[in-house]
Design brief:
161 residues, mainly alpha
């Protein structure tokens, strides 16, 4: 039997007790009531022990749950930080790549302009040299024509070789 059954038995004993006339009191068998109280008293440590054991188990389960919760939260924060860090590294890498691309494009454009300017300068010098050479050639031909006898001057025909 447990404490609840014994308390129920005590309550039933009091309810069934003979009423004292003209009063709210009743008469109960003292020995019976004391025996029930003693039985209840003997059962209480066992019930309290079971209740304490259940309470400690409950406390342990709650504490285990709290520790697991804190572990999961810490793990989630660590993963979040790692993901943010990875994302930040990606963004930095993208920004650096874009900066390098812009630098490279600007450098290539500068080199193309310098190359074009260099080639243009060389071609201009070559044109000047060619013009001077043509002028010298024309003067030489004119000189040869002026000195050559009439028989060789057949107009614009080239001289025989």
């Amino acid at each position: 039997m447990d404490v609840d059954e014994k308390l129920e038995e005590l309550a039933q004993l009091v309810e069934e007790a003979k009423a004292v006339p003209l009063s709210a009191s009743c008469m109960v068998n003292r020995a019976q009531v004391l025996d029930l109280i003693e039985e209840i008293h003997d059962l209480l440590p066992e019930s309290i022990g079971r209740a304490d054991h259940l309470l400690s188990e409950r406390t342990a389960v709650v504490e285990d749950g709290r520790r697991e919760y804190e572990r999961l939260i810490a793990q989630a924060h660590a993963e979040q930080q790692q993901m943010l860090s990875t994302h930040e590294v990606y963004l930095v890498a993208v920004a650096e790549a874009e900066a390098i691309r812009r630098e490279t494009a600007a450098e290539a454009e500068r080199m193309r302009r310098e190359t074009d300017d260099y080639i243009d300068g060389k071609l201009a010098n070559f044109e000047i040299v060619l013009n001077k050479t043509l002028t010298v050639v024309e003067r030489g031909r004119d000189k040869i024509r002026d000195q050559a006898p009439e028989e060789f001057s057949g107009g614009d025909e080239p001289l025989p070789e």
